[in-house]
Each structure stands twice: as C-alpha cells, then as structure tokens.
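Sample intake sheet
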Amino acid sequence: MSGRMRIAVAGAGLIGRRHIELIQSSGDCVLAGIADPSPAAREFAQARNAPWYADHRALLEQEKPDGLIIASPNALHLQMALDCVEAGVPALIEKPVTDSVAAARRLCEAAKRSGVPMLVGHHRRHNPIIKAAREAVVAGKLGQLTAVAGLWLLKKPDDYFEIAWRREHGGGPLLINLIHDIDNLRFICGEIADVQALTSNMVRGFAVEDTAALLLRFANGALGTMTVSDATPAPWSWELTSGENAAYPKQDQPCYILAGTGGSLSVPNMELWSYPQNPGWHALLVREPVALSAYDPLVEQLRHFLAVIAGREQPLIPVQDATATLAVVDAVSEAARTGQKISPGRIMEQAT
C-alpha cells in the first residue's frame, strides 16, 4: 500500500464519482480523500470509508495527497488549481480548464512559474480512435488535408433541462458538448485559425442555443464545417458513434469525415478510402479498415496522470493547450453574436 500514489478528488458529482471508482479499482493508487461540501458527497465518502472535507484546502493541508483531480463546477476550477499550485500538488482538471480564457491564462502563468504539473481532462485524446485518426493525418495517409466535416446531432431528453443553468447562457451544446469535438479536431487536424458561426434557439426558445453551424479554417489551409444540435433524433455524434460510454446506445455511423488529397477517413468507424492507382472519380475506391487497440480512455488518463506526477511523462494536455481549445469555443460564440470572422488567437491575445 505504501508504494501506491494517494490521489484525492474535489467534486463528487457524476464525473467525480467516476474518477473515484477508477482510483479505487486501480492497483497503482489509492483514494486520499474527497472534497465536496454537499451532504450527498459526505454520505458517499462515508460509505467508502474515505476521508471527507467540505473544503479542498483542508484536504490538501491535512491529507497531503500526491495529486488532486478537480471535478468541481467550472467556476471553481481556477481557484482550486491555484491552491494546488501553492501546495505543490499536481492536478488533473476536468474540462473546460476554467470558465474563461482570461482565467486559464492566469493559471498558465502560475503553473509555469511554479513548475507544478497541471493536466487537463480532455480525456478523448486518450481514446485509441482519436489517437489513430491523428496518426493517420500526421503520417500523411490522407495526403494534404483539404476538408473536415463534423456532426454533433442528437436529442437531449426534456428532463435534462429541468436544471436551470442548462437553459441559460453557457449551459448549451457549445460550451458543454462542442468543446470536446473542437479539442478532437485541434488534436487531429491542427490549430484552427479562424471561425464563423450561426446559432439558433428556435426549437426550445431558451436563452441558450440548441443549434449551431460553424465554418472553420485550419492553420494548415484545410477548411471545415461543424453542425451541432441537441434537439433532433439522430445517430451522428461522438457520444452515439464511438462506444466510449456504455450509457449511450452505440450506432455504426461516423461523426467526422477527414478528407485529403490522398485519401479520406471516417471517424470513429475508422474507414480509410483511397485509390490504389490512377486516382479519379471513374476509378474504383478501396475501403480499408484501420486497426485499433481497445482500452478505456479514462483508465488511460489516470495512468498518464500518475506518470506525470512521477515525472515519467509530460502532460498530454497542458493548461496552455486546453486554453487554446477554450479560445476556439469563445471565438464561435463571438462569431455567432457579431456575424464576423473571429480568430481564436486574437481571443488569446486579448486575455493577456
């Protein structure tokens, strides 16, 4: 037991409890404690004989964990992470890294000065599907990337919106859901140079959007589109196509199409299309399945976090990288509000 890392969790909501389950089933770490002021969290901790604290700072001081997983509401991420920096405790911060680009930039500077490792929980980067798609692009299997088409279309149940913040600005599919897809596309295809966007709340009439259409220009010259709606029965979303989370019934459909001068790839069903010879629309296209490993990305993320704490690996998603993803989402919102083309890079500069 003494050789296993002690990992604590701040926030015992749905994702926090999933982290706790993974820690308790790991052979490489143990649960150092839970910080969450709610009575439900206290009962949850007591049922597992885990130390419970209403305040994460008390947990850091009393338990002195090797690492802290921050799974609290977004608005609390910055202060909790800064407290970890001050205590010298590495942190795994759930996405989005903070609730604003300015806050994320502040955390970047603090982490850089201290040298305390900070890892952000865009866990899909640990998924073998996303890793294989990136490898195909980087290895040149598609030739020069020319176009990207993404879909995030599904129907959230009516009772999802009984929670008030999900009907307000910031509680819609752009910040809650699309941020995952933006991070996937940045990781696979490269940086996004500028965006244009339209949003609509026509279906439900809430203050927050239910539908959005994006036009993306990547720094490498490729163009992309992303269509988003949480108000339609449809199988084309990462949640329903990837099989990553068993809570969603898996559909054998793609949600991203990556097109290049040498081939195209559908994701996550991972079919590579190309011409074996004499390329052209009259020639026969060949479909080649891409072989994949099989593992839980959240388990892999925990393994990686432990390796980061030990100094064996560098963070796959450092704070600066996650800030760039958040800046793209902010750029989408600004583009929709103003009708202008917006650069995520400018969003980052304005936040300094």
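Comment: The chain has eleven helices and 14 strands. The radius of gyration is 21 Å.
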